[in-house]
Amino acid sequence: MYLNNYQLRYKLRLLFLLMSIAIGFTSAANGSSTPPVIPQITAPAGAPNVVVVLLDDVGFGASSTFGGPVQTPALEALANGGLSYNRFHTTAICSPTRASLLTGRDSHTANVGAVLNSSNAYPGYQGVLKKETATVAQVLRQQGYSTSVFGKWHLAPTWETSPSGPFDRWPIGLGFEKFYGFLGGETDQFEPTLYDGTSPIMRPEGEEYHLSEDLADQAIRWLGAQHSVTPDKPFFMYFATGAAHAPLQVGESWVKPYKGQFSQGWDALREDTFARQKAKGVIPADAQLTDRPDDFPSWKSLSADQKRVAERFMETFAGFLAHTDAQIGRLIAALKNNGQFENTLFIYIVGDNGSSGEGGMSGSINYMGALQGLREPLTTQLNRLEDIGGRDSYPQYNAGWAWATNTPFQWVKQVASHLGGTRNPMVVSWPKGIQDSGELRSQFSHVNDIVPTILDAVNLELPKSVNGVKQLPLSGSSLLPSFADSAAPEHKRTQYFEVHGHRSIYHEGWLASARHDRLPWTVGLKNMGPTPFEDDEWELYNLEEDFSQARNITASNPIKLAMMQKLFHSEAQRLGILPLRSSLDAKTAMPNLIGERTSFSYPQGAIGIPEPAAPPMKNRSWNMIASLNLQEKPSRGVIATVGGTAGGWSLYLDAKGRPVFEYRVFEYGQIRVAGSKPLPAGPQSLRLYFKYDGGGYAKGGTFTLKHGVNVLGEARVLATPPAFFSIDETFDIGLDTGSPAGKYPDQAPMGYPFRGGKIIKVDINVK
């Protein structure tokens, strides 16, 4: 029997009615007629948005806002509408500062007491964030916040940064729902090594590309999407630029305004900056300008040519920093345009440590080599003077400029014993939460105070456990009382500092300091050995009377110094870092993905492998066999590569299908071996042999390129890298991610991907 449409609809309606009645009876029987609702976590009512901006390697006396020579109008405007802090402190180096900033704990408590490049197996220095020290992003995300990070991370151990993961200590594993940036300590600003989430990506196309602009674009885009979908949901954004860390790279239009602005040299720049700082009131009227250490040359001791090069380095740094501040200004404008600025706690930290002296006395047009003892001569710098800051340079300025941009303090980045390494400006804005504007705050504060301040502003307490793990207490305290009162009591009685053995302890206005043996520009040199800690000379300062740490009063206060030394020892014991070891000399076996292997095989598409996880080809002979299957039309593109613009090598097929091998040792030498004919279609084999000269680190050798058994060419290099080509570039098959390691054909697509065939595999053997 068949039903017509009317009868069918009638039967279905009757069925639905009976089902509804049955459901109603069931609900009544259960004591409720309300359907279940999936709970949504929401932030506390009125909770502010939070933006934390962290610049890189920018000292106290660099920005115009704090009396420096570089114009920073976005920072200036934020300070005029908010509060400026002139006694805020970092750890003196990047990874520890970032660990402390995001967890609210002391860096050694978080297990990141050294920059990740120098991690070792001792507790406190392992470079592996503890689960007991959850990040503020983890806490806020679980309390109804959207979370994001744009820019530099540098908190994932090297052995965890490959495509194999694990991703626990990548941003997405530590509470950030969005990550767009780079994992290492630095990256090329024009051709960065980028990740979106956990995927390596090529940067957006465009001849005028710059990473800082891209980061701002991505952050603004994320803000717009987040606000349009959930306008009432607050967000936490961590915006960590790669600027003004080396490489100092920026468009020439930003350098041009600073041409000739630094001809007076670094000694005079310090005096000029010091006068402006007093005039602006960002330092006390009775502050003293500290003397130049003997390790830094005077400006007048330089030759005319050395001064020309040094000026160009500083002009480039100034343009780079000014450009960076402009991108922060765009981010602020976006918040204002969508009506979110008024209830945004905006924290702008001007540097994760003091300015960097890692460029050494002469600076470097390619400081990756200089760090390892392969420094270019002055003649090379002069010949490439106008290239400094451009795409084909990887520069860092002279250590004298770092000292000058840390005015009025002693020393530079890494030196945790002195304020030149640890004191950075901070500006805080929150129109809805801060009534005072344009005022100065001088309470002694530390980067570990930021998380407690954020939680206090949001009206949250640190959870006793996060993801089932009991949490260690916060090391810092909230700065919220200082938002309302310039005379609020100083909440921090004691704070220790330690990096690479440089150490100090602050307690109730006093500071005791001991600088260790290493100079910041010698970290990559093999001939630098450790010296005993007992040989270090301690100094004592009364910071209540001596803002700039200028007057060492050890001789007249031996009992006070002994008390402070005892207090430092007590803090170090509490942290579990005794006996003290310089992390640069504490060589221990760290995890790696290589193990004891000497043979490696990679398919096409194996990209984003960090250099330390690639075949160990430094200081030894090695060979490589690329097995290819090519099509009739000319194949082209990258076969295998490591490194980038600063230094590295690439084996590729050019636009006509001819094999090419290029190898660059920073500014120390470059070779090119090429075949004269394109490879034919079908299965092919390219072989590359390197015969190392031997006799120690960084020696030269001979490369031989073969097609099958036919020799295509040979070339010698006089030197090779002793340790690495780069900090952030990767080993790739079939694509060159990051900056290019080869001079690829004009009009080649970014990364010069392999096309017109297939890379079956690339086999590498090391001896």
Describe the structure concisely.
The protein is of the alpha+beta class and 767 residues long.
How are the SSEs ordered, and which strands pair?
Blueprint: H1 5-29, E1 49-54, H2 73-81, E2 83-85, E3 88-89, H3 94-103, H4 136-141, E4 146-152, E5 178-182, E6 194-196, E7 199-201, H5 211-229, E8 235-240, H6 252-255, H7 265-280, H8 304-337, E9 344-349, H9 367-370, H10 378-383, H11 399-404, H12 419-422, E10 426-429, E11 439-441, E12 445-446, H13 450-458, E13 465-466, E14 469-470, H14 480-484, E15 494-499, E16 502-507, E17 510-514, E18 538-542, H15 558-575, E19 599-602, E20 609-610, E21 622-630, E22 637-643, E23 648-653, E24 659-664, E25 670-674, E26 682-692, E27 701-707, E28 710-717, E29 730-733, E30 757-766
Parallel strand pairs: 1-8, 1-9, 2-11, 3-12, 4-5, 4-8
Antiparallel strand pairs: 2-10, 5-6, 6-7, 9-10, 13-14, 15-16, 16-17, 17-18, 19-30, 20-29, 21-26, 21-30, 22-23, 22-29, 23-24, 24-25, 26-27, 27-28
